Amino acid sequence: MSGAAIYPGSFDPPTFGHLDLIARAAGLFPRLVVAVVGNPSKRALFSVEERVDLLTAELDGVAGVEVTAFDGLLVDLCAQLGIPTVVKGLRDGGDLDVELRMARTNREIGDVETVLLASDPARSHLASSFVREIARFGGRLDHAVPPRVEAALRERLRA
Ligand code: PNS
């Protein structure tokens, strides 16, 4: 595919599922903007800046990928960057229901098209919410997040 795309998400924290999707989307689009949402209605474990830093560190050396933060509507970020294409991952039917609705909404309100990529089956059970819960109770995380992210989680939850 030619051009650019935006891969938006909460990334609280980034998981191997996100990183796999980003690597694969970067293979499809010469420019990929990973956009971290600062959603005031969701209480995040990590600040937007911390999530941007975690992703930037993990994506160091992945050609064509940049990480940014955004507030507000995704379609407004698309307009601001002049990138009318969004990439999202699909883990299962639950994601499909949500993503189809979001894709149709973003097309309606912002003329933004969404490309849905099937997640790697080996990663399709991963969820940031599970990761946060496992971390809170001190469980194993090496299957879900890179060591740097695991260290940040342990540090955050030590208090
Ligand atoms: O990782 P997530 O939490 O599943 O990502 C959801 C995200 C950030 C992509 C979605 O909530 C979003 O696009 N938020 C920005 C606000 C917006 O545009 N809302 C209208 C969606 S149809």
- The H-level CATH homologous superfamily, spelled out, is HUPs
Termini Cα gap:
46 Å
How many individual helices? 6
CATH architecture: 3-Layer(aba) Sandwich
Largest sheet: 3 strands, parallel
Explain what the structure shows.
This protein has helices at 16-28, 48-58, 74-81, 93-110, 128-136, 147-158, and strands spanning 4-9, 31-37, 65-70, 85-90, 113-118. With 159 residues, the chain is α/β, with parallel strands linked by helices. The strands form 2 sheets. It has a 3-stranded parallel beta sheet, with helices on both faces. A two-stranded parallel sheet has the order 4-5. The longest helix has 18 residues, at 93-110. It is globular and about 45 Å long. The mean pLDDT is 96. 4'-phosphopantetheine binds next to strand 1 and helix 4.
